[in-house]
Specification:
SH3 type barrels; single chain
């Protein structure tokens, strides 16, 4: 199932894709696991409209985005960082959220803004102190993300908040794919049509279940929260007017421009 969040007739909805149509709902989708089977619950479904008549927004509204740094070995190597013994975590604010097709704003105080293609986990129910072997039961699905970074404002050692937190620095989309195995997905970024990153989630140092379990020991994850799982090697700068694509097998393409 593919879940979207969209604007239609001046109002924001969640919805599920049904061919060329979208079935709209005002309710936030949640999940329930019973007898080993995970189901998505919608509440009231209101109407079906053509997908062409809606405008896609970011597919969820996270209260927090928990991000993982240096989670691909090749990315750690390209920045001359040692392989971490536990996940390196930081937070992006909800105000950095951006939907598909919208423009990433180049901040005036930065002279280098980089793309970082990432698989993003969307949480579907309250998660606290969960076991790794149960972690995927708490996942609504997966989407594409771009951990946009003002690289010249990112210190080699220390806090990354300034570099990661500008408005529009967290594009997500185009939708949430619920039926997906995250363990071995091809992920890549394309800048102006040229492939810049190409890897697989099989190369994650800390995989999705271990990340969910680890983070849930620290903070409560709520429905709609996201985990950005890290980026492979090949990150690089974008300039005004560029077109950046994050593409993940089984999900689709997240496209944004820079202005």
């Amino acid at each position: 199932m593919r879940i979207i969040r969209c604007e239609y007739d001046g109002k924001c909805y969640y919805g599920r894709l049904d061919g060329d149509n979208v079935i709209l709902s005002c309710d936030i989708p949640t999940i329930c696991v019973s007898g080993g089977k995970k189901e998505v619950f919608w509440g009231t479904e209101e109407q079906s409209v053509p997908l062409s008549q809606v405008r896609l927004e970011a597919p969820c509204m996270p209260k927090k985005a928990v991000c993982v740094g240096l989670n691909y070995r090749d990315h750690a190597d390209e920045f001359r960082q040692t392989i971490p013994s536990s996940p390196v975590l930081f937070i992006k604010p909800s105000t950095s959220l951006l939907g598909p097709g919208k423009a990433i704003q180049y901040p005036s105080m930065s002279e280098r803004v980089d793309y970082e293609a990432e698989l993003v986990v969307v949480i579907g129910k309250l998660a606290k102190n969960i076991a790794e072997n149960e972690a995927l039961d708490y996942v609504l699905g997966y989407t594409c993300g771009n951990d946009v970074t003002a690289r010249d404002l990112q210190p080699q050692n220390g806090q990354w908040t300034v570099a990661k937190s500008f408005d529009t620095f967290m594009p997500l989309g185009p939708w949430i794919e619920t039926d997906l195995d995250p363990s071995n997905l091809h992920i890549r970024s394309l800048l102006n049509g040229e492939v810049r990153q190409s890897s697989s989630t099989a190369n994650l140092i800390f995989n999705v279940p271990s990340l969910i379990a680890y983070i849930s020991q620290i903070m409560t994850l709520e429905p709609g929260d996201v985990i950005m799982t890290g980026t492979p090697s090949g990150v690089g700068p974008m300039k005004k007017g560029d077109h950046i694509v994050v593409e993940i097998e089984g999900i689709g393409r997240l496209e944004n421009t820079i202005e």
